[in-house]
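Lab notebook, page 48
Experiment: co-folding of the full assembly
Goal: obtain a model of how the components sit together before planning crosslinking
Operator: M.T.
Materials (sequences as entered):
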Amino acid sequence: MVDPATAFLQGGVPAGSAPEQSLRHAPGPYFGAFGGRWMPESLIAALDELEETFEKAKVDPEFLAEVLELNKNYSGRPSLLTEAKRFGAHAGGARVFLKREDLNHTGSHKINNVLGQALLAKRMGKTRVIAETGAGQHGVATATAAALLGLECVVYMGAEDCRRQALNVARMQLLGATVVPVTNGSQTLKDAINDALRDWVANVENTHYVLGTVSGAHPFPAMVRFFHEVIGEEARAQILEQTGRLPDALCACIGGGSNAIGLFHGFLDDPSVKMFGFEAGGEGVDTGRHAATITLGRPGVLHGARSYLMQDEDGQTIESHSISAGLDYPGVGPEHSYLHDIGRVSYEAITDTEAMEAFKLLCRTEGIIPAIETAHALAGAIKVGQRLVVDAEKPEDVVIIVNLSGRGDKDVETAADWFGILDEDGHVKGTTLSTRKAKGSPHGAGAPTAAADSMDSTTEDASNE
Amino acid sequence: MSETTNSTAPAAFESKSAAAIEKAKAAGRKALIAYLPAGYPSKQASIDAAIAVARNGADIIEIGIPYSDPVMDGAVIQAATTEALANGFHVTDVFDIVAAITAETDAAVMVMTYWNPVMRLGVDEFSRRLAEAGGAGLITPDLIPDEAAEWFAASDKYGLDRVFLVAPSSTPERVAMTVAATRGFVYAVSIMGVTGARSSVSSAAESVVAAAHAAGAERACVGLGVSQAKHVREIAAYADGVIVGTALVAALRDGGVAAVGALAKELSTGFDAPATEEVAQ
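Observation: model returned without errors.
Model output:
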């Protein structure tokens, strides 16, 4: 097997420089009719500087060696490819392999991108990084990279998400980052991006905006993808080694779509490999409370790119809903919109309930607690497996790779609530252990909580541990 | 983007916003450009406020379309536009508002909008209805000329001004490209930041205006952070117009239509040369 790290260094075929007829040749700014730069003029110079720095860096052996070294000796790459035999029995008996991005340092795929961008920030002479975060995974990863490389770090996080992901707020603070709860709009990821952009406009001289997904203005979609392509490159080599063949299908969850595009890209030129992106169906796509952007949205511009978008008849962004903070975003990366339009990737919605059932199933069958985001991909894999085995001679002839994009430690409270493990005071039943603020201020899922309150409770929880 | 080949635009197409600025110039002053959000605090009140501002010295009214994700706006305007949306503002209301202001005043009426609402209605459809309402054109804070092919075509077809922004960070190449794409006036962003009143106007503003003029802009107007008559006086020394937003929105919020009219009147005293005031007294 070719060492994936070596493959990365040699570039294999970096997407931006693949042959033009290849789908892997996708350097931006446009992906078909999507992408571009729908941004205030004030930020164009910074985007130009970033693009120039990135274009030089991605062909600079010294830079690639730096990324490789951090990936290997800091993040722990290559991440494992684990066969999930007992879980696969529920997916029609297909062979299911998990790409273990949950085992990366900080617990998700997000670290791949932030290390690359933090190195670019240093190259540009920036001393401060800012980021938005939904579930908190990208914020934690950015805070981590900032600590490692000696950069000041400010993370914008919706106040609603601060409440849902309090543990990650504490992690960021422990890592030395400042977390700013955002109280505008729906108080979730899109509003955090708005405030991060406002910060960037005002501080662009010394600040790099570490955008956490493959959305936004050029060069972000192509650049963030570049740093995640290692996922698919490793997975391709690993599945060939373990099974001697390419997989029949890839499954990944889609918020903005960074973990999915990272996995998919390595296989885009393999026509036999089907690809499935699973969006958050929330309470159901017919309820209006979901985040199924490609399934139900229509093209528009948000946060710098033309892409599918959840919007009303006036072009106002519709607030998304998902049990998973990381998928709770009404937009999606422009390359996904393109891959949808040309039919290369199928995008489907998974409800909260389906995701949580898959969450439990993976815990019970494989001893792995996944992130709730990732649980959407697992629920999708069950469906895909059951569909594909119908046409297979033997179920085990079907091979599926699921991107296990993150671990579920951050979701323990949400999951405990969902499965009724907590009593009404928020204690783990039969114990005095609390995952929440003190008794007397119960705030179960859905109960409104002031931003400051949420931050306070987080800090208290952290100090209690 | 040839402006002469389309058949529907008037043969001798006159920019309404340019005319308003030139009229102020002929009167020995610079243009006052006043921003107010459509539908805030209500549809009728936003019309009344704009009329009050126009009757108290504003040469151009800039009506902002409330939008769910206003990344270039600070807290005051965000709060106002959020309230307008909560009160049921719809994008097509802006055409009624523009028509009502145009009917009652001599001011040129521009619409300031983030781009997605225009795309959603359709760039051509939006432009046609804006022209029918008597609107002068669009100010587009998140649309750069690089992405504006559809808007070039529609603005030429319906004879609308297209005001793009130049920033302190814009390179000479981008300033030149933006100036060439602009019709009416260039919006010179005074500071790297979002809308909001500031105690002083950044010195960067003068350089941005100079760069725009050097690139061939006949008219460059300064916005962002302008809130007092003394700012107006400073900017009038080098720019062709002064854009005020947040301060007016705050006045409307706190004191209603009367207060916003009074502030416009006070701001326009910034155009009176101090010496003239003394002589007059």
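Interpretation: Chain A touches chain B at residues 36-46, 48, 184-185, 190-191, 194, 197-198, 201-205, 300-303, 309, 311, 313-317 (CB under 8 Å).
Next step: discuss with group before ordering constructs.
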